[in-house]
Amino acid sequence: MNLLRQLGKMLAGGGMSGTSGDRGLYYYVRCNRCGEVVQVRIDPMNDLSAADGEDGLFARKIIVGRRCYNRMEAEFSFDSNRKLRDSRVSGGTFVDKDAYLEDQQKAAVKSGN
Questions:
Q1: Does residue 2 register a pLDDT over 70?
Q2: What is the DSSP letter of 36?
Q3: What is the pLDDT, as a whole number, of residue 51?
Q4: Can you give the pLDDT at residue 64?
């Protein structure tokens, strides 16, 4: 009976209890032009491609924030177990989640929310 309840919750959009369902990897990039911090999400099961001539996987993301239209390009290199090996970005710099949250808070105060 418990299995039927869980199945009903999943079909109704409630998901399984105790799991968020988000397997995304999150990275944060600060734009060199306007200073906005943009969140970048990589789904390790769908966004990674085989690296040419190398053992491992890679992802490339073109990032555009909301404050300006500066294009930032990030490249991520992963091993065969989908663990990050290396990352590079042009047009911006990598920052941590705290910098992203601080930027979001400043934007909310500025907009009056």
A1: no
A2: -
A3: 85
A4: 97
